[in-house]
Amino acid sequence: MKDKVNLSKMSYPKANNILVLSAKSWFISAVLGQFIFAYYIAAFYGGHALNTDFKAWNRALTHGFVVGEDIGNFFLILHILFAFIITVAGPLQFMSSIRGRFPSFHRINGRIYLFTTLIMGATGLYLSMSGRKLAGDPSQQLPFLLSGFLILIFGFFTLYTALKRNFKAHRRWALRLFLIVNGVWFFRIGLNLWLMLMGGPVGFDMETFQGPFLTILGYASFLGIFPLSILELYFLAQNSSKVYGKIVMASLLVLLTLATLIGIYATLFGMWLPTLSIPN
Questions:
Q1: C-alpha–C-alpha distance, residues 82 and 79, integer Å
Q2: Which of 55-64, 138-147, 188-197 is the least confident region?
Q3: Which of these, 151, 29, 61, lies nearest to 21 by C-alpha position?
Q4: What InterPro entries has UniProt attached to this entry (predicted)?
Q5: What are the domain boundaries of the chain?
Q6: Are 67 and 54 in contact (CB under 8 A)?
Q7: Does residue 11 contact residue 242 with C-beta atoms inside 8 Å?
Q8: What is the distance between the terminal CA atoms of the chain, rounded to a whole angstrom?
Q9: How far is CA 207 from CA 134, 210, 222, 257, in A?
């Protein structure tokens, strides 16, 4: 009863500040995870590429570098290279301190980021539609395929709204693009969080990498159903005049921040570091 009274007395500006602070908290946790992921890409894929040991990529990819498939391997290399670029450039694009102090860098980085996401989406579509073997069953591969189309669509609207100088709409489309293009990151974080919480592979088979949980996770992450839904709820809370709605959304973001940090920890020690520690 006491909590309800306090909530009813909370001012609109204070509730709005709490909402913004909770969103920043999640973003900081995501940036941490993104930069760790970028280091992993550079250390594992980049390290083995420098040694021309592309076959070592298959330690992390179920159907990675395939001898004799030169075109497919080329697009795979491009896809991983661009994944590194967007993982670094994406978070920088949304940092208000950089955007305010270095507007020229923001514009240049934005062009690089947008161009890279479009090429990455196109290479992802090629890898999905070329007949190349992919992990999982068709129910998991479909959302990965569709995500390539979504990346191209979101990228188009991000560019279109920028050219129209509709910066509010541009920011929203850029955020949607940021979430959908990081589907692989969300998938890995979600998978390892699940493994930690469940104490093992519940809802799927670790050997075949198939099962209902992975199908659900694929749609939630590659199509961005979960993160995009949270983003749209955040937009609604931002525009709402109700203090209650802002506080509920802020509370949800705090929970998601904790889940993200735990997922990053689980992925770092359960997937990335073990892969890096495997001797050549």
A1: 5
A2: 55-64
A3: 29
A4: DUF2306_membrane
A5: 2-277
A6: no
A7: no
A8: 62
A9: 14, 8, 21, 31
Q: Please state which of the ranges 59-68, 118-127, 243-252 shows the lowest mean pLDDT.
A: 59-68
Per the listing, tokens 């692989």 go with 184
Instruction: Report how far residue 182's alpha carbon sits from residue 188's, in angstroms, rounded to the nearest whole number.
Output: 10
242 compared with 191, residue with greater pLDDT = 191
pLDDT (tens digit per residue) in 175-224: 999 999 999 899 999 999 999 999 999 999 888 888 999 999 999 998 88
Q: 3-state DSSP call for residue 192?
A: helix
**What's the rounded Cα separation, in Å, for the pair 187 and 21?**
25
Angle at Cα 256 formed by Cα 254 and Cα 257, nearest 5°?
A: 65
Give this prediction's pTM. Answer: 0.86
